[in-house]
Amino acid sequence: MAARCVRLARRSLPALSLCLRPSPRLLCTAAKQKNNGQSLEEDARPGEQKAEPAAADKVLLEEKGRLEEQLRETVEKYKRALADTENLRQRSQKLIEEAKLYGIQGFCKDLLEVADILERATQSIPKEEIKDENPHLKSLYEGLVMTEVQIQKVFTKHGLLRLDPVGAKFDPYEHEALFHAPVEGKEPGTVALVSKVGYKLHGRTLRPALVGVVKEA
């Protein structure tokens, strides 16, 4: 009995092994499914990798734009600062030059009074009395004239010019009208009489000349 069972088992083993062996079609299908799964995973990974660099590029571009804007603002501020500095330098230079030119303005005004007194003293001496028979008066007059000439030379040297505008056109920037009167033979609007001479310091009126102006009859 036992021997019979053994023989039956031996006969059944080959058939059982055939049943348990996987078919080639099943193996091919399983391989394809495995490959498709791997391909899907590989396709998904590059997408994730591409998404990460895109976000990083966006952040870098935003940072670049922000830095470029800061650079433009800084350059503009620098240019404005340079312009302000240059304007300040020019104003300071102009003030320094004006101080050099017009720093003696107060001193010149005081000297004008001295020149006026000297001129009146010279004019007060009668010309007919200036004779050799009167040597003292003649010497005094000559001394006054020489002093007046010298002081005018000093004025001219320092940019102080005398204004004696008889016959000139009336200029409100250089002349001060004391009166208006018709004068025969004179053009209206011109200076007929100078009561007190004026002066200009480097082109700027230091003291206007006091004048009488001709008007139409």
Write down the secondary-structure element order.
Answer: HHHHEEEEEE
Oligomer: single chain
- Please bin the fraction of helical residues: 55-70%
Low-confidence stretches: 15-20
Through-space gap between termini: 174 Å
Spatial shape: elongated
* Sheet with most strands: strand arrangement: 1-4-5
Arithmetic mean of pLDDT: 81
Structural class: alpha+beta
Strand count: 6
Amount of beta strand:
5-15%
Helix count equals: 4
Q: What radius of gyration results from the CA coordinates?
A: 57 Å
Main beta sheet: 3 strands, antiparallel
Give a quick rundown of the structure.
This protein is of the alpha+beta class and 217 residues long. Helices cover 65% and strands 14% of the residues. It has helices at residues 2-20, 24-102, 105-124, 135-157, and strands spanning 160-163, 175-181, 191-196, 198-201, 204-207, 209-214.
Can you put this structure into words, describing what you see?
This protein has 217 residues and is of the alpha+beta class. It has helices at 2-20, 24-102, 105-124, 135-157, and strands at residues 160-163, 175-181, 191-196, 198-201, 204-207, 209-214. Strands 1-4-5 form a three-stranded antiparallel β-sheet. β4 (198-201) and β5 form a beta hairpin. α3 (105-124) packs antiparallel against α4. It is elongated and about 120 Å long. Residues 15-20 have low confidence and may be disordered.
